[in-house]
Design goal:
By secondary structure, this protein is mainly alpha-helical. Helix content is 78%, strand content 0%.
Length: 137
Amino acid sequence: MWKRVAVYGILLAVVALALQWLDYQRLARTRWEEVYAVAIALAFLALGIFVGARGFAGARKAAFDGNPQAQAALGISARELAVLQEIVAGRSNKEIGARLHIAPSTVKTHVARLYEKLGAKRRTEAVNRARELGLVP
């Protein structure tokens, strides 16, 4: 019984495929301009995706290094740089202390030294100066 069902199923699939092929042939003959236009549009779409992927793959940014020359010239320690990065992130002294596991008074000391080394009077000036020097992204 199942062999008969399989044979009828295969026969039905072949007939459906033949009907679809005939429908495609009718479509291709009556509307050949649209078929060609769609084919050309798909080709240009594929070309655009390929060229775009190639173009943007080469435009990668270089890794940020933190300008070690400026850091050394200003005498900024690694801990001060970590505090500076937290300042750039917009954290308060208390939050910085909790994240770096240091006392808030130590954070204040590091901030004061950063102001002195960067020639700033406020956090915003320090952040702007650090960005100009390439110490932070």
